[in-house]
């Protein structure tokens, strides 16, 4: 499918709304306030421009168009936020070298304890545990937990708000 | 937070936005707007 066909066959307004929402979510999760004058919509526009100009080559992609655009956006945001994360990572040199005293299992338990202290309910804890166990598709999580997908979306949104604080708290325990 | 756990959280939130339907995104956008107005 050519780029023109992909643009024609997809609801681009819907995709751009989803992409913009993702950028808002990432900003909130990372806890960055200074976007160097950019808005979340700017990041989406930059990605679409890269695709339109061929810097990101849709013709070589093997995934649906929406997944391709989201992948480009994830990479674009990663590159932008890298400078912020490098500062963050310097606070965790022992983790990077693999000599941290806290292993992943310990960190998981600490994270759950901190989430509970921050007011997380059992639904949020269950979803968080799914994530740590590499189950990250909302539909799969919904099926495992016997909930509908909409409920999982709402739980995820509540959890997302707790992530910046959780990251800060976990740093103190490693 | 270890890089691995952080990546797992990032992946879950990525899939959340990728797979959320139109109504869900609109609902969340409205909630974001409402929260930002309160601030």
Topology:
The complex is a heterodimer of chains A (174) and B (39).
Chain A: H1 3-9, H2 12-30, H3 40-52, H4 65-89, H5 93-96, H6 104-117, H7 122-132, H8 138-145, H9 149-171
Chain B: H1 3-19, H2 22-38
Strands of chain B, count: 0
Distance between the termini of chain A: 49 Å
**Any idea what the shape of chain A is?**
globular
Strand content of the residues of chain B, in percent? under 5%
The most extensive interface, with participating residues per chain, is: A-B, 45 and 27 residues
The major sheet of chain B is characterized as: none
pLDDT under 50 segments of chain B (min length 5)? Answer: none
Order of helices and strands of chain A: HHHHHHHHH
Rg on CA atoms of chain A, Å: 18 Å
- In N-to-C order, the SSE pattern of chain B is HH
**Oligomer description:** heterodimer
Structural class of chain A: mainly alpha
Sheet with the most strands, sense and barrel status of chain A: none
Taking all residues together, what is the mean pLDDT of chain A? Answer: 85
Q: In one word, what is the shape of chain B?
A: elongated
Give the number of DSSP strands of chain A.
0
Give the C-alpha Rg of chain B: 13 Å
What is the percent of helical residues of chain B?
A: over 70%
Q: What is the overall pLDDT average of chain B?
A: 78
Total helix count of chain A?
9
Compose a concise summary of this entry.
The complex is a heterodimer of chains A (174) and B (39). Chain A has 174 residues and is mostly helical. Chain A has helices at 3-9, 12-30, 40-52, 65-89, 93-96, 104-117, 122-132, 138-145, 149-171.
């Amino acid at each position: 499918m050519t780029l023109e066909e992909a643009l024609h066959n997809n609801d681009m307004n819907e995709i751009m709304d989803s992409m913009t929402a993702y950028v808002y979510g990432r900003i909130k999760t990372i806890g960055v306030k200074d976007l160097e004058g950019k808005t979340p919509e700017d990041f989406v526009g930059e990605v679409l421009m890269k695709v339109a100009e061929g810097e990101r080559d849709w013709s070589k992609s093997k995934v649906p168009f929406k997944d391709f655009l989201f992948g480009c956006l994830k990479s674009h945001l990663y590159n932008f936020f890298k400078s912020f994360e490098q500062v963050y990572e310097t606070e965790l040199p022992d983790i990077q070298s693999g000599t941290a005293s806290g292993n992943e299992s310990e960190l998981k338990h600490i994270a759950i304890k901190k989430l509970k202290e921050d007011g997380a309910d059992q639904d949020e804890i269950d979803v968080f545990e799914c994530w740590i166990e590499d189950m990250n598709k909302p539909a799969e999580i919904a099926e495992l937990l016997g909930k509908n997908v909409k409920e999982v979306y709402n739980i995820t949104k509540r959890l997302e708000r707790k992530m910046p604080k959780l990251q800060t708290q976990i740093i103190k325990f490693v | 937070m270890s890089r691995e756990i952080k990546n797992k959280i990032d992946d879950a939130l990525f899939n959340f936005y990728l797979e959320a339907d139109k109504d869900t995104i609109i609902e969340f956008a409205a909630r974001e707007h409402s929260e930002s107005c309160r601030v």
